[in-house]
Every structure is written in C-alpha cells, then in structure tokens.
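During the second year of the project, the team shifted from modelling isolated chains to modelling whole assemblies. The rationale, set out in the original proposal, was that interfaces cannot be judged from single-chain predictions alone. As a representative example for this report, we include one of the complexes processed in the last quarter. Its constituent sequences, exactly as entered into the pipeline, are reproduced here:
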Amino acid sequence: MRIGFFGTGNVAGALAARWTDAGHDVVLGSRHPEERAAPGRTVTGLAEAAAHGEVLVNATPGDASLGVLTGIGPPALEGKVLIDIGIGFTEGMALTHPVTSLGEEIQAAFPATSVVKTLATMTASVMADPGALRSPGNVFLSGDDGAAKKTTGRLLNDLGWPDSAQLDLGGIATARGQEHYALLFLGIAGALGTHTFNIGVVTS
Amino acid sequence: MRIGFFGTGNVAGALAARWTDAGHDVVLGSRHPEERAAPGRTVTGLAEAAAHGEVLVNATPGDASLGVLTGIGPPALEGKVLIDIGIGFTEGMALTHPVTSLGEEIQAAFPATSVVKTLATMTASVMADPGALRSPGNVFLSGDDGAAKKTTGRLLNDLGWPDSAQLDLGGIATARGQEHYALLFLGIAGALGTHTFNIGVVTS
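Output from the structure prediction step:
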C-alpha cells in the first residue's frame, strides 16, 4: 500500500520504518524536506506525500495539524483515508481542543476525507512495536467510515496489533476519548518514570 | 474508621456497603435524608455526615459537588481527608472542568482539607468489588498530602484493591488525568456494551 505521512518526527519515523519492513511504499512529507532527509527514508514536500499516499497519516504536532492540513488543501486529501495520531497541547500541557477533539475538527474541515483516529494513546515505540510490552494492551479506533477503519485495522496488524487488541469506539466523535486520555497517560508516565507502557481493558 | 459520605447514589451505596462490611462506621449524608433512608444504612444531613467522618467522601454528581461542599462550608471539612470521586459532565457529556479538574478546584476552595482523587475511572460496582473482574486493573490516586493518600490506600485495600493495583499519580493536579479519562471510559463502555470493566497498565 502507498502511505504518505505528514510529519517526520518520532511517530512518523517509527511507523514508517515498520510499514516499510512490512512491504508498504512509504513517503514522509515535510515543510522542509531537505532538512529532514536521512538514510533509508524518502522525504518529500507535503503535497508530494499527499499525492503519493492511498492512505495518509497525520503525525504532525497536534497544535499545528489543522494549519498544516489546511495548507495542503482539501482537494489533495479527497477520497483518501487519513489516519490521525495528533494530540494538541498548549504550552501548559492542557488540550488545545478541550471540548471537542482534533480528530473531529479535521473531519469537519475535510468532509471528503475519511479520518480515522488511532494510535493516539501511546508513545511512538509502543505504536510501532506493541510486542515489546508484556502484552500489547489495546489500541482504539474512531471514525465515521467503516471501510477506512478496516484498512486502518490491517495496517495496525502489520505493526503487531492483533485484531483482538483493536477496539472500535465508534464514530469520529469518540476521538475525544482518545485525546482526553492524554492527560492520564502523562500522569501514569510520571508515576512509572517511563512512556513505554500501554493500557489494556479488563472485563469480568 | 468513621467515614462520612456526601451523596446517597450508586457510588455511595456500593462503597458504604463494602466499608461497613470491613468494620468501618459509615454514615451517608444527603440534602434530603428523609427521602434517602433505606434498610441497613444510616442517612443523615450533610453537616452531620461531615461531623461524623474522620474521612469524608464526595460522591455527589460532579457538576453539583462544589455547590454542595461550599454549602457545608470549609470549617466542617477542616483537617479531614476528603476522597473525591466526582466527575462533572455537562448535558452534552463534555467535562464541566475541561481545562482543570473538579479535584483541583475542591482542593483550592478547601485549602485546610486534604483532597485525594481516586476511584474516578470506573463504575460503582467495580470500585467496590474489583475482584469481580478477571484482574482488577489499576486504581489511581492524586493528592498533595502523602498521609491522606496512605489512609485512602488502606481504605482501597478494604475494597479489594491490593497495593500492587494502586498507582499514585502525584499531586492533586494529576486529578485532571483521572477526570479526562472519563471520555475514553464512555467510548470503551459504548464499544463493549457494558460499564463493568477497568483498565490496567501494561509495561515492558
């Protein structure tokens, strides 16, 4: 599958490496591609990454994502799946979207694109290699388009997330839960002294 | 230990029953005690519950808690541990404190009281009987007073939460994480079709 990333940070780097290993054709898009090039990865401009991908991935900082995506423009994203991993924080580590979510706002701004929020509840190394934990825990999916969530689910499989670890929360409005969890994530990370963990649902 | 609840709903009822069984002397406080009386439980006014408890428990609806507590007044709560379980929701199921937390606001309004936020990340039956799940998962504690968190931890033991399941997130500011998680809790509950679950942290 052709995958185009927006962003070249830890998240994009970790996921791109795993998906490349799994046989996908991955391009990273940057506003400054010449500064982000590195051995073993293809870095292009944002518009080129959008044109390349059947599936696009928003791995830009959440407080900048809407600006970046709007700059690329809705036509370039039309009819595509956009996996959104971003979480927006203010300088004081509050959410930039405290009463909605970035995922919902991207979906509203790009109605002809199928936004799927996922992988937003863990650190990059766990996103890309859940098998390194004692057990993977859960990864959540939120999106209005069932087919887009199926495509995303197969890409999650390729990262090491079995179907049994994937929990479909429902429509894109449920992205709110994934994003708001970030504050508990930070509290747990502080208590444990590491970001390398996940949460798993336990039932009766 | 003498425990005074504010609130007579599901949360207060479930916890009061378990703590009574464990040998504690429990009173439930209500604005309308005559309407809330039931066999096997002691219901008083709010001021009487405050006077009774060495440890107090806020189990009122989170959107009403600050009003209820302010009505009782800071002197009645002075020098006591206040376990806060409340989460405030708007009618649209957004948080009433989207950029801070109820726990922090109670602590700020009652500086001579030791507020401990805990048990806010699960449904009443799981709070009171985590042993009914396949594994208990985690319960989180947030508070500025270490001794108050120790007292709370022993009361959690009495509900069936072993020390190993208790995760101290830090100061009361970390209550934000517990409260914001409510939105992910609702998403997971919707996906599972039940509120009877918890989350557990998995590490490497």
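Chain A has one domain: 2-192. The interface with chain B takes residues 94-95, 98-99, 121, 132-137, 140, 142, 167-170, 174, 176-178, 180-188, 190-192, 194, 196-204 of chain A (CB under 8 Å).
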